[in-house]
């Protein structure tokens, strides 16, 4: 019985070599990549129809007297474009330090062979879902979103230099804190506003004491 | 006669080993170390989207590897994503939540270790957000299901609600909850599925 328990093949996730750069002034740098729309996990509107609507791949909670909150999920890639995990993003308007509401996002990165990493930031632009003709659209596919450029830095604080904050995580990411930046880069925009592009999450972390 | 003694010895040995692996008697004292939370909110899932492997002993044992895209990738075949609406039940605002789960690489049946990393991210639009991280222990659930299989539905053979959280903690928060402190506990309920108990001290 003990021998059978010892050799029972429990599930193990494949681990790819981590693409981490050690920085000269301390800490480590690691970047994660997401391609939309191919990495987007479809989230069909199975949630309560009265309050949650289905956007294209985005679950939206739209309370009556508040702005919407949106959940998105993606496959997560390393800097060599290998799929290494799953990333989820929650976006909503939240009160800031002086009570004024601003768009904020939080990311949870799950790399099953390594652990979980959690990130939070204020957004430089409203990247929440947009309602067009009674239908919710992801910001990247909403009319006019790419009118002023093809590369947007989304992070706008709360860390210095307008960077987001790495809160920590589990496994290999236990006790790692630091900063990150989120950049959206448009690669193709179709006539119907459907877009293709890349989200780049660049983290700089160090072991907190 | 010696053969009979050997067979009886083997059967009792196997039963004792199975009991030790499933119940882990050394850990029976752990429950005394769990700190109760002051005035926790009971958050119940009102609707949910699931993707990937089920959060059950069978899923964590690898019997239910995901067969559908995108979880067929070898790096995330046994992972799980949940997007849920959470209700406090007292008419308060609902939260949009995402949960990510993956079994740990150092699991071992011989050591009675059947654990998954898990993380919750909850957001109340216009109010605040919280990040929760911890681990989930599936060994008690596996033991319950084995005993239920052996004993049927009689006394001791029914599935009971179980607290599955190990070392749960509030990793961070935002908005009006930015200075909150607290913790959480998650239950697996055979009738209702998962339940989240969240204790926040909003300073």
Please summarize what this structure is:
Chain A has one helix spanning 2-7, and strands at residues 20-22, 28-36, 52-54, 59-61, 69-77, 83-95, 101-111, 115-122, 130-132, 135-137, 151-153, 164-169, 176-189, 195-207.
Describe this structure in words.
The complex is a heterodimer of chains A (209) and B (203). Chain A is mainly β. Chain A has one domain (20-207): AOC barrel-like (Beta Barrel), CATH 2.40.480. Helices cover 3% and strands 48% of the residues of chain A. Chain A has one helix and 14 strands; from the N terminus they run αββββββββββββββ. Chain A has one helix at 2-7; strands spanning 20-22, 28-36, 52-54, 59-61, 69-77, 83-95, 101-111, 115-122, 130-132, 135-137, 151-153, 164-169, 176-189, 195-207. In chain A, strands 1, 2, 3, 4, 5, 6, 7, 8, 11, 12, 13 and 14 form a twelve-stranded antiparallel β-sheet that branches. In chain A, strand 5 and strand 6 (83-95) form a beta hairpin. The longest helix of chain A is centred in the N-terminal third of the chain and has 6 residues, at 2-7. The termini of chain A are far apart. Chain B is α+β, with helices and mostly antiparallel strands and 203 residues long. Chain B has one domain: AOC barrel-like, CATH 2.40.350. Chain B contains three helices and nine strands. Chain B has a nine-stranded antiparallel β-sheet with strand order 6-8-9-1-2-3-4-5-7. In chain B, strand 4 (115-124) and strand 5 form a beta hairpin. The radius of gyration of chain B is 20 Å and the shape is elongated. The N and C termini of chain B lie far apart (73 Å). Mean pLDDT of chain B is 76; it is low at 29-34. Classes of the chains: A mainly beta (209), B alpha+beta (203). Chains A and B meet through helix 1, strand 5, strand 6, strand 7 and strand 8 of A and helix 1, strand 1, strand 2, strand 3 and strand 4 of B.
């Amino acid at each position: 019985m003990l021998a059978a328990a010892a050799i029972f093949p429990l599930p193990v996730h494949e681990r790819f070599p981590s693409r981490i750069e050690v920085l000269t002034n301390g800490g480590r740098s690691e970047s994660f990549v997401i391609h939309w729309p191919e990495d987007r996990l479809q989230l069909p509107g199975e949630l309560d129809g009265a309050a949650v609507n289905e956007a294209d791949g985005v679950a939206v909670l739209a309370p009556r007297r508040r702005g919407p909150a949106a959940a998105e999920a993606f496959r997560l890639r390393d800097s060599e474009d290998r799929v290494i995990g799953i990333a989820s993003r929650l976006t909503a308007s939240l009160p800031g330090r002086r009570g004024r509401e601003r768009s904020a996002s939080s990311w949870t990165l799950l790399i099953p062979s390594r652990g979980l990493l959690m990130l939070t930031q204020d957004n430089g632009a409203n990247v929440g879902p947009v309602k067009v003709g009674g239908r919710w659209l992801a910001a990247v596919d909403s009319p006019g979103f790419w009118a002023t450029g093809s590369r947007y830095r989304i992070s706008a604080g709360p860390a210095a230099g307008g960077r987001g904050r790495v809160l920590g995580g589990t496994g290999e990411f236990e006790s790692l804190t630091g900063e990150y930046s989120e950049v959206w880069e448009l690669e193709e925009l179709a006539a119907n506003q459907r877009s293709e592009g890349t989200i780049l999450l660049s983290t700089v972390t160090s072991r907190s004491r | 006669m010696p053969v009979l003694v050997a067979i009886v010895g083997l059967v009792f040995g196997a039963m004792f080993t199975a009991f030790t692996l499933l119940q882990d008697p050394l850990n029976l004292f752990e429950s005394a170390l769990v700190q109760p939370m002051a005035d926790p909110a009971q958050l119940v899932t009102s609707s949910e989207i699931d993707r990937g492997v089920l959060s059950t002993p069978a899923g964590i044992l690898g019997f239910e590897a995901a067969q559908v895209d995108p979880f067929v990738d070898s790096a995330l075949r046994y992972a799980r994503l949940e997007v849920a609406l959470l209700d406090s039940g007292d008419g308060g605002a609902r939260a949009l939540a995402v949960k990510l789960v993956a079994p740990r690489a150092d699991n071992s049946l011989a050591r009675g270790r059947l654990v998954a990393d898990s993380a919750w991210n909850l957001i109340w639009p216009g109010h605040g957000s919280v990040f929760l991280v911890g681990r989930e222990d599936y060994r008690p659930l596996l033991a319950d299901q084995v005993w239920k299989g052996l004993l049927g539905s009689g006394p001791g053979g029914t599935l009971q609600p179980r607290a599955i959280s190990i070392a749960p903690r509030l990793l961070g928060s935002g908005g009006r909850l930015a200075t909150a402190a607290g913790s959480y506990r998650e239950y697996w309920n055979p009738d209702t599925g998962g339940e989240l108990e969240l204790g926040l001290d909003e300073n």
